[in-house]
Write a structure and sequence with these properties.
By secondary structure, the chain is α/β, with parallel strands linked by helices. Helices cover about 35% and strands about 20% of the residues. It starts with a strand and ends in a 9-residue tail after the last strand.
Length: about 425
């Protein structure tokens, strides 16, 4: 029995794929061991979203080789999909859409499994019956992206949009529900594009959500990152009528300045984005709106940054994940003029991080004294006391003071003070 160690880098889609590969290996009789010395095979599911992600991927591959020079080092995913010359420490390369063939690749020791990802229409056939989390399951329903934002390499690493057939998704959700999971998170590389590669009118993200909602045993549904265009009057009204739908939406923004959005090749204006937030607030009571923001994009002036900051204040997000622009070779933004110095990026990042903290505190204060539902995930010791930790429907992390083991139970609690909400 060969010992296999897996390590994941990057997004929730990568995490899903890594867990699916692990389940595949376990079913085939391989022994899964920690990512330490002593494994016969090391599998690293790599990431390439930034230059830092590239570096982390290389570091983990070299760490695997160092831990056991005689082991088989397997590099999978986005980093190796975009590299012209493979790293010499890698024995086997498994590109995107080929992870489904992991077992046969290992048996044959095939060194060349990269395909032309930009010309494939096949959705990769991976499945899960359990995940690393015990209460919440992330389910990959879509791969690829057609957007080509000027800063992003992912369309070149993941290819064009490919959607998983609804029946396959529902079977997996049913299997996870039977194994005790009460919450599912639908995720993808560009989730909002789910179904656009099907025959017109066949399926879309809304019809998929409705089908998942009908699965017995599932009590909560969340969505991964969404593009603003998916939020229409019909979409917001329909999902608001689904009791299992969590009022937590991550709408990718990147900038609140229209000129910067245009340079980024984002296909909306700040005004259109604001309308989508207003729609969600029309149909959901105090939904948690979260987002991503890039500071220091090429050419971003002080005035443009000021516009972006003012827009973020106007929207009143629960959380904004702030990223300093990182030049990514192979993208249009990498060769744009007026690259912003690092010290200016850091200053702008600090300003938005402080703004984010203010927004988070303001949102959470709305819940003090109110009753919320918490899906309990684990028991921990805080200040010498046993606490049950879980998330509300809005995805606030809450501590419940009780010694009773409530893992994987949904309980109603009253938020007594903001110390119950932990970070």
């Amino acid at each position: 029995m060969k010992k296999v160690a897996l390590h994941n880098l990057g997004c929730k889609v990568n995490a899903y794929e890594t867990e699916a590969m692990q389940e595949m290996l376990e079913t085939a009789g391989y022994e899964i061991v920690p990512f330490k010395e002593g494994a016969d095979i090391y599998i690293i599911n790599t990431c390439t979203v930034t230059n830092i992600a590239d570096r982390k991927s290389r570091q983990m591959l070299h760490r695997a080789r160092k831990m056991n020079p005689q082991a088989l080092v397997v590099a999978a995913g986005c980093y190796v999909q975009t590299q012209e010359v493979p790293d010499p420490c890698i024995d086997v390369v498994i590109g995107n859409n080929k992870k489904q063939d992991l077992l046969s690749i290992l048996e044959e020791y095939d060194k060349d499994t990269l395909i032309d990802i930009n010309n494939t229409k096949e959705y990769e056939n991976l499945h899960l019956s359990r995940t690393g989390e015990h209460t919440r399951a992330y389910i990959k329903v879509q791969d690829g992206c057609n957007q080509f934002c000027s800063y992003c390499i992912i369309p070149y690493a993941r290819g064009r949009v490919r959607s998983r057939v609804k029946e396959d998704v529902i079977e997996e959700v049913k299997r996870l529900a039977q194994n005790g999971y009460q919450e599912v998170v639908l995720t993808g590389i560009h989730l909002s594009s789910y179904g656009i590669d099907f025959e017109e009118g066949e399926e879309n993200l809304l019809s998929l959500i409705q089908a998942v909602h009908d699965v017995e045993g599932i009590r909560r549904i969340r969505l991964g990152s969404l593009e603003p265009r998916i939020i229409t009057e019909e979409f917001a009204r329909t999902i608001s009528a689904l009791p299992k739908m969590c009022p937590h939406f991550h709408l990718s923004l990147q900038s609140g300045c229209d000129a910067v959005l245009k340079r980024m090749n984002r296909r909306y204006t700040s005004g259109e984005y604001y309308e989508k937030c207003a729609l969600l607030r029309k149909y959901f009571e105090n939904p948690a709106l979260t987002t991503d923001v890039i500071v220091g994009f090429p050419g971003e002036t002080n005035e443009e940054f000021g516009e972006s900051k003012a827009f973020i204040e106007k929207v009143e997000f629960y959380e904004a994940h702030v990223f300093k622009y990182s030049k990514r070779q192979g993208t249009k933004a990498a060769v744009m003029e007026e690259q912003i110095p690092e010290q200016i990026k850091s200053k702008r990042s600090d300003i938005l991080l402080a703004l984010n903290e203010e927004g988070r505190q303001a949102y959470e204060k709305n819940f003090v004294g109110k009753e919320v539902e918490v899906l309990v995930e684990e028991s921990v010791e805080i200040g010498g006391e046993t606490m049950q930790i879980g998330h509300t429907r809005e995805y606030m992390k809450v501590a419940v003071k009780t010694k009773e083991n409530l893992q994987n139970h949904i309980v109603k609690v009253q938020i007594e003070n903001d110390l119950q909400i932990i970070h």
